[in-house]
Amino acid sequence: MTPNILTIAGSDPSGGAGIQADLKTFSALGGYGMSVLTALTAQATTGVTGVFPVPAEFVRAQLDTLLSDAKVDAVKIGMLGDTDVINAVASAIDDHGLHNVVLDPVMVAKSGDRLLAVEAIAAVRDQLVPRADLITPNLPESAELLGEDEVHDLPAMRAQAGRLLDIGAKRVLLKGGHLAGESSTDLLAEPGSSPQAFSAERLPTKNTHGTGCTLSSAIAALRPQRRDFYEAVREAKDYLTEALRYADDLNAGRGKGPVHH
Ligand code: PLP
């Protein structure tokens, strides 16, 4: 049976990030995509010019209506915007017993535009990190969640992944794409075992918009179809590498374009 995969995230009209990237990824990886919108953005490959938030009550109404009808097999959470929306999503996870929840703690777009209010970071840490089955921070997001400096090497990444478990994360995929080097290494950490490293070649691609959205969505789509998170993450990384390899074939605008689904 085709698994139902839900994204709770913001819209990107350029189709490279947000719910548009999530739905393309779900379809490409054998899932049936569903979406609850948290915000509209006015956005192109050149950046974000505006954000129009969906009120928290209406985020909750979308979730309640959908989940009273459909069973979802995995959830990806992306851009949330503010504390009220975070609280609404956290209580919906409990009330509907959502499982296979992958949280991408989106804070700032590559263009530099903020997608999460600074004062909402604590709510992500306290309300969502412990409820998610996997969190997928990059290094700046990990530092923000922990209130620490950004780390710059693999040993420090291992230590920081451990501290994310200490604050209540059930599983962490700490993404090392911001480190210098010919390959890009991510660490999958779970309590009670040493972190597993996934390395991929670093491609000279110009178009990298939506990489984080794509990876977390690929993991959510694959998790119900694979034995465990390790297998889902391994294949999701391969999917992202191929999406990056062909990204420069796209002509979605003048700025940093999207990866190729
Ligand atoms: N727009 C939306 C709606 C997003 O959810 C995200 C990332 O999660 C972005 C933009 C940023 O994408 P990137 O930083 O890959 O350019």
Automatic annotation (TrEMBL):
The keyword ATP-binding applies. One of its GO terms (cellular component) is cytosol. Keywords: ATP-binding, Kinase, Nucleotide-binding, Thiamine biosynthesis, Transferase. It is an enzyme of class 2 (transferase). GO terms for molecular function: ATP binding; hydroxymethylpyrimidine kinase activity; phosphomethylpyrimidine kinase activity. Its EC number is 2.7.1.49, 2.7.4.7. GO terms for biological process: thiamine biosynthetic process; thiamine diphosphate biosynthetic process. It catalyses: 4-amino-2-methyl-5-(phosphooxymethyl)pyrimidine + ATP = 4-amino-2-methyl-5-(diphosphooxymethyl)pyrimidine + ADP; 4-amino-5-hydroxymethyl-2-methylpyrimidine + ATP = 4-amino-2-methyl-5-(phosphooxymethyl)pyrimidine + ADP + H(+). CDD domains: HMPP_kinase. Residues 12-260 form the Pyridoxamine kinase/Phosphomethylpyrimidine kinase domain. Pathway: Cofactor biosynthesis; thiamine diphosphate biosynthesis; 4-amino-2-methyl-5-diphosphomethylpyrimidine from 5-amino-1-(5-phospho-D-ribosyl)imidazole: step 3/3. NCBIfam families: HMP-P_kinase. PANTHER family: HYDROXYMETHYLPYRIMIDINE_PHOSPHOMETHYLPYRIMIDINE KINASE THI20-RELATED, PHOSPHOMETHYLPYRIMIDINE KINASE. Catalyzes the phosphorylation of hydroxymethylpyrimidine phosphate (HMP-P) to HMP-PP, and of HMP to HMP-P. This is Hydroxymethylpyrimidine/phosphomethylpyrimidine kinase.
